[in-house]
Amino acid sequence: MSITDEQEAAKQDAHYEAMRYLRNAEDILLKAGQEGKWYLDKKYVSVACGAAYLGALIAMDAIFKLRDVKPPKGNKRESIKYYVENAARIDGKLARDLNTAYRALHIEGYYEGTLSVPIIRAGFETAYDIVSRIRPQRELTDAEARKRGKSWLGKLATWLF
Fold it and tell me: For the chain, what is the largest distance between any 2 Cα atoms, rounded to a whole number of angstroms?
């Protein structure tokens, strides 16, 4: 599948933003502290899981746009059903990864407040796997992203929706 320069630029932006969420989530997770196979602070785990899950959703939106999947009505995020059904049409492994990220990060980590390191790590790993699917030919540096400023966000939103 060949993509245009505009799509590659939007892919760069989406990848940069998704990775920014995941890096921030990792930093927040460090604040939770860890003792063996348990994190120590539920608040930091919850916030980190929320950020990591949003990073995965940014990547999913970009994947869907590249595959011409129709966005949800009203320019708002639909339930997980929208994401899983469309991911399954693209690739079964993508759907499984999304389901794992959803359950580990959004449900167990964010809502239920699990402190289990293996569960949270599994969610983070699959979020990274999802984001890796939109890895551009050349990743943006922090300086390039700052130089683009907020203008890229509008372009990305236009491209995604």
Answer: 48
